Amino acid sequence: MKTALSQRRRNLAASFSDVKVDALVITSPPNWYYLTGFTGDSGTLIVSRKGSTFVTDGRFMVQGRGEMTGVRIQQQQGSLYGSVGNFLKDSRFRRVGFDPTQTTVGQLRSLRRAAGPRVRWTATAGAVESLRMRKDAAELAQMRRAAILASDVVQFAIGLLKPGIREFEVAAEIEYQMKKRGASGPAFETIVALESGPPSRMPGPRPSD
Q1: What count of other Cβ atoms lies within 10 Å of the Cβ of residue 51?
Q2: Percent of the chain with pLDDT over 90
Q3: How far apart are the C-alpha atoms of 114 and 96, rounded to whole Å?
Q4: Contact 147/164 with Cβ under 8 angstroms?
Q5: Which pLDDT score is estimated for 194?
Q6: Which residues contact 57 (CB under 8 A, 6 or more apart)?
């Protein structure tokens, strides 16, 4: 898996000539997980042709070293985006890409201010997502296992249904069974709609009592 992660970063860097950037700033947790395996929830990944650096705060330094291989880890000093901008300022990168669908106006302003006028910013939407669209054999196998697990849990949950049981009890049992059987958790909030009437006709009702 670690070899696959490094190959993903190389594939991403290989696309930089097409979008005319020297490095890409990645602020989306699902995207940095796809590229590094890091499961923390705070940080920013900078990928270039010469390597990758992950900037995060002190809470995640040990976790980052344990989960990431082939990625430099730098502890932020002050604000996250100020630290990322300072890193870019000290680097030799002239053209830096960012995804405008994932980077806020405020975050970009902080990056620009800290990086200085030498760095030119280029909106580069969907660079990582285009890689994520193509699943490798390991990903396909994992998706199949997840589908089988989810199907088994649904069948288990159907067996719980009886008069008087509450929706949130079924939802809690579904999520418990998912983790008990090896899942990291649900991909989205579990939907259980047992009550007849308007709530059950909603596309995404929340479990109630």
Answers
A1: 13
A2: 82
A3: 13
A4: no
A5: 79
A6: 42, 43, 75, 76, 80
List, as one string, the DSSP characters of 191-204: ----S-SHHHHSSS
Confidence of residue 157 (pLDDT cuts 50, 70, 90): very high
Q: How confident is the model at residue 121 (pLDDT cuts 50, 70, 90)?
A: very high
Torsion, Cα of 140, 143, 149, 153 (10° steps): -150
The H or E element spanning position 143 is helix 137-158
pLDDT for 206 equals 73
What is the pLDDT at residue 132?
A: 95
Task: Determine the pLDDT at residue 207.
Answer: 74
Cβ 16 vs Cβ 22: under 8 Å = yes
Cα distance between residue 191 and residue 45, in whole Å = 33
168 φ/ψ angles, rounded to the nearest 5 degrees: -70, -25
Report the predicted TM-score, pTM, of the whole model to 2 decimal places: 0.84
CA distances from 46 to 43, 77, 141 (A): 10, 16, 29
Farthest-apart Cα atoms in the chain, separation: 68
Pairwise CA distance, residues 42 & 37, whole Å:
13
The token pair that represents 27 in the structure block: 């602020």
Question: What gap in Å lies between CA 50 and CA 48, rounded to an integer?
Answer: 5
